[in-house]
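Entry type: protein chain
Record version: 2
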Amino acid sequence: MLAGHGLARRSFWDVADDLASGRLVEVLRDWSDEDAPISVIYASRRHLPRRTRLFIDALADHFARAAQA
């Protein structure tokens, strides 16, 4: 996209800075598809550091609030 090679379907989160700066422009604004899930993958719950659990919880909270907006 940034190199001028056409269109791409990307998450807003991936391209927000490029849209804000004008490096990318949104096309087909009225076209939409189903929301795509976001997954957090980690090795094991068994010895999950507290900071990792807090980070996962913060992500879940952030995206839940964004979905309500």
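Comment: Helices lie at 12-21, 50-68.
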